[in-house]
Design a protein that fits this description.
The structure is a single chain. 67% of the residues lie in helices and 0% in strands. The chain is mainly alpha-helical. The longest helix is centred in the middle third of the chain and has 26 residues. The chain is globular and about 55 Å long.
Length: 196
């Protein structure tokens, strides 16, 4: 599969006709520098979207919105700067807008119960225990305040450096370090109080 086809396989589901030329009529040289670099960071951005949000479907939606916004605002990217960090900042801003909108709606509409049920079909006792502990730990991370949760997910789960995470969140490294310390302390207290 060529790079062109990989790129447009991610973009085509967005339904953006003006940004999706006919793959058969273009050559590598006609792709902009941003689009060529974007191809290389697509897997990392997709993984980051999954880390930031609470479920796979929201992660896929966030990923697609981010790619669309990056392509729409191609002129805002400065060649020579890190495209992955620029795109991650765009992703963070899209997600924060989404969270704000959901919070407004949550005040008006009662949320539906989660359909994520644990099945014990064919699982061993240790599998079930590990699954329960993982779910409990995910719930503890999700219960953290948004700023701590994002810091923990970017640095601990997505393995970004402090400077990369601080740049994505558009905060000083010291602020990031403080948020990480508060988030880790809260998680440690929860662990000390007991697991399920």
């Amino acid at each position: 599969m060529t790079i062109d086809k990989i790129f447009f396989a991610f973009i085509r589901p967005l339904g953006i006709k003006r940004l999706v030329p006919d793959v058969s009529s273009i050559g590598k040289s006609s792709l902009s520098d941003l689009r060529r670099q974007l191809i290389a960071v697509l897997p990392r951005l997709h993984r980051l979207a999954g880390v930031i949000v609470r479920n796979r479907q929201d992660g896929d939606d966030l990923f697609q919105k981010t790619i669309a916004r990056v392509l729409e605002r191609e002129d805002g990217w400065e060649p020579g700067s890190r495209l992955d960090l620029w795109a991650a900042r765009i992703m963070k801003n899209i997600w924060l807008d989404e969270v704000r909108m959901r919070n407004r709606w949550a005040r008006l509409v009662e949320p539906m119960p989660e359909g994520d049920l644990l099945s014990d079909e064919g699982a061993t006792a240790s599998d079930l225990e590990r699954s329960t502990e993982n779910r409990w730990l995910r719930e503890q991370v999700e219960a953290l305040p948004e700023e701590q949760r994002l810091a923990i997910k970017l640095v601990v789960l997505n393995e970004l450096s402090y400077s990369e995470a601080a740049e994505i969140l558009e905060i000083p490294e010291g602020t990031l370090t403080s948020r990480l310390a508060r988030g880790r302390a809260a998680l440690s207290r929860q662990i000390m109080e007991g697991r399920p």
